[in-house]
């Protein structure tokens, strides 16, 4: 039986005729957090979209606990247990907080960690306080909590998080970081895409750095911290 929660092997992805991902490979171990880093335009979000089925890879394989999922429809991939916290949050703005969570529960994976609305509210008490409020009227931080909560309602075996700290004030970034750390401590397997390098290095066990659609570093967060040349060349300062 495969030990990897998620194995991405030799993925080539195109937008039309534009070759964006070039042989991208990495593996996420169960219960660990893998940080996917790179400058803007490096291919991080394309990688997430390919894993989630929004883009079909022309070559390569994606396996969820040893089961091939590359090229399946996004709803099928979600039911198998890969759930996405999307960049930009993308909630149903005219539905209430509770209704957003109920919609997410309707197409859930039957396995995973057994998330319920009450459990999401325990994780995010502020959402409980605003359970009857329209999602579109929430603050940016509250919307991010709801986006995470919606993904968790799918009972993810693997949770993909695409820029969860984007546009948030430092205090809220720290709160999102604590939430991610708590999920990891509970055994959730996570792939985290972030522009916030410090946040990622603080949370991640393993790091993959991509540049122009190619993997240029694969190792531990501790190894990357010590590689000033890699950070400077491919990530900038933090």
Structure write-up:
By secondary structure, the protein is of the alpha/beta class. 36% of the residues lie in helices and 26% in strands. The chain is built from 10 helices and 10 strands. The chain has helices at 44-52, 74-80, 97-105, 117-123, 125-129, 140-152, 170-185, 197-203, 221-225, 228-234, and strands at 6-15, 18-28, 33-37, 59-64, 67-68, 82-85, 158-162, 189-193, 206-211, 214-220. The strands form 2 sheets. Strands 6-7-8-3-9-10 form a 6-stranded mixed sheet, sandwiched between helices. The chain is globular and about 45 Å long. The relative contact order is 0.19. The model has no long low-confidence stretch (mean pLDDT 91).
Keywords:
36% helix; alpha/beta; 10 strands; globular; 6-stranded mixed sheet; 10 helices; 4-stranded antiparallel sheet; 238 residues
How far from one another are the termini? 39 Å
User: Share of helix among residues?
Assistant: 25-40%
Shape: globular
Radius of gyration: 17 Å
Number of helices: 10
| Mean pLDDT across residues | 91
Largest sheet: 6 strands, mixed
| Beta-strand percent range | 25-35%
Structural category is alpha/beta
In a nutshell, what does this entry contain?
The protein has 238 residues and is an alpha/beta fold. It is 36% helix and 26% strand. β4 (59-64) and β5 form a beta hairpin.
List the helices and strands and how they pair.
Layout: E1 6-15, E2 18-28, E3 33-37, H1 44-52, E4 59-64, E5 67-68, H2 74-80, E6 82-85, H3 97-105, H4 117-123, H5 125-129, H6 140-152, E7 158-162, H7 170-185, E8 189-193, H8 197-203, E9 206-211, E10 214-220, H9 221-225, H10 228-234
Parallel strand pairs: 3-8, 3-9, 6-7, 7-8
Antiparallel strand pairs: 1-2, 1-4, 4-5, 9-10
Helix pairs in contact: 3-6
């Amino acid at each position: 039986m495969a030990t990897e929660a998620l194995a991405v092997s030799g993925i080539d992805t195109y937008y039309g005729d534009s070759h964006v991902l070039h042989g991208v490979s990495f593996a996420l171990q169960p219960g660990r957090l893998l940080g996917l880093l790179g400058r803007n335009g490096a291919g991080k979000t394309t990688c997430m979209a390919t894993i989630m089925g929004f883009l079909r890879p022309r070559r390569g394989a994606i396996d969820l606990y040893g089961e091939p999922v590359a090229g399946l429809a996004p709803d099928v991939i979600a039911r198998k247990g890969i759930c996405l916290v999307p960049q930009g949050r993308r909630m149903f703005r005219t539905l209430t907080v509770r209704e957003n969570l109920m919609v997410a529960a309707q197409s859930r994976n039957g396995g995973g960690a057994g998330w319920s609305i009450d459990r999401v509210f325990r994780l995010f008490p502020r959402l409980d306080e605003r359970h009857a409020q329209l999602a579109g009227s929430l603050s940016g931080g509250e919307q991010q909590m709801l986006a995470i909560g919606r993904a968790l309602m799918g009972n993810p075996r693997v949770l993909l998080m695409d820029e969860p700290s984007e546009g948030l004030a430092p205090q809220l970034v720290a709160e999102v970081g604590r939430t991610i750390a708590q999920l990891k401590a509970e055994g959730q397997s996570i792939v985290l895409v972030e522009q916030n390098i410090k946040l990622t290095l603080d949370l991640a066990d393993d790091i993959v750095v991509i540049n122009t659609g190619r993997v240029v570093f694969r190792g531990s967060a501790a190894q990357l911290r010590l590689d000033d040349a890699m950070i400077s060349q491919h990530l900038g300062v933090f």
